[in-house]
Specification:
With about 280 residues, this protein is of the alpha+beta class. About 15% of the residues lie in helices and about 30% in strands. It has 2 domains: about 150 residues, Gyrase A, domain 2; about 70 residues, Beta Barrel (Elongation Factor Tu (Ef-tu), domain 3), CATH 2.40.30. It contains 5 helices and 15 strands. It has a 9-stranded mixed beta sheet with strand order 1-7-9-8-3-4-5-2-6, with helices on both faces. It is globular. It starts with a strand and ends in a 16-residue tail after the last strand.
Length: about 280
């Protein structure tokens, strides 16, 4: 069973009798349908619909656990506190929390609430998040490859907080956004993008015959910028790109480049969105 220790993570604990209702009205994730032993992505948005904070949420013994970037954990807690008002909620930060991940496990989640199945991946992969554990085989590169193979993006490698909509990083494909639960901050903008089908930036999988250049390299076609290369593992990676421009390049047989390296771009296997239909195809 491969595993890896994830550096740079922190835990926000949101406890109290109103913890769930408090978060349900703020974040993109539908917490009502979140089962014990499962982990789901989510975000706290700006009123303009941009991702301010990204997290992975699961149930804990006394409330909800928000697994987020250590570098923004304190700011995240402060932002949630601004919305707290008189809600019966306690918010605390554990910036020293140990987080490991494993996959291809032989068993289901443990009886404790510290081993959680990651719903962003197919169920048969059995990807688990472990909290407070140091038991790892140190397969950091293998973990990156697994994320890439399933189009699972993360900040800051694949996008910048404050500069992406949930659709951009495929949160609508991985259970990170609910369009049925009702209001949350930024909901009007995100719902409009969903119903009008106006999402044009997406995370795609990158493949190449040569090793890819570094994260942050521009992706172009005939000199026209399509997006930016994100996580990289050898000849594979992720990229945040304009899928309408990618489709134009593919239809025209134009080479797509990451820096000077020729690449192919594909929609992650479990995702449901498609490339835009061209006028000729329509």
């Amino acid at each position: 069973m491969p595993s890896a220790l994830l550096n740079g993570r922190a835990i926000l604990n949101v406890a109290g009798e109103e913890a769930e209702s408090f978060l349900q009205n703020l974040v993109t994730t539908d917490l009502d349908s979140l089962q014990k032993g499962k982990l789901r992505p989510g975000a706290l948005l700006s009123p303009q619909g941009k991702i301010m904070f990204e997290f992975l949420v699961s149930r804990s013994a006394d409330g909800l656990r928000l697994d987020c970037l250590q570098s923004v954990a304190d700011d995240f807690a402060k932002r949630l506190t601004l919305y707290k008002l008189r809600a019966k909620v306690q918010i605390s930060v554990d910036s020293e929390s140990l987080v490991t991940v494993s996959w291809e496990a032989d068993s289901d989640t443990s009886d404790s609430d510290s081993t959680i199945q990651d719903e962003r991946f197919p169920d048969d992969l059995k990807v688990y998040r472990h909290y407070g554990s140091t038991d790892t085989s140190e397969n950091d590169n293998a973990w990156t490859r697994l994320r890439i193979a399933h189009g699972v993006a993360q900040a800051p490698d694949d996008y910048t907080l404050g500069d992406a909509f949930p659709h951009d990083i495929n949160l609508d494909q991985t259970g990170g956004v609910s369009f049925k639960k009702g209001c949350f901050i930024g909901q009007e903008v995100v719902s409009r993008m969903q119903h009008r089908g106006t999402a044009r930036r997406r995370i795609l999988i990158v493949d190449s015959q040569a090793d890819l250049p570094s994260t942050g390299t521009s992706i172009t076609a005939n000199g026209r910028e399509l997006g930016t290369l994100g996580s990289v593992a050898g000849k594979t990676g992720l990229a945040l790109v304009r899928i309408d421009r990618v489709k134009d390049a593919m239809d025209g047989g134009t080479a797509i480049l990451a820096g000077e390296t020729a690449i192919d771009l594909a929609i992650p296997p479990e995702h449901r969105f498609t490339f835009p239909v061209s006028a000729q195809e329509a």
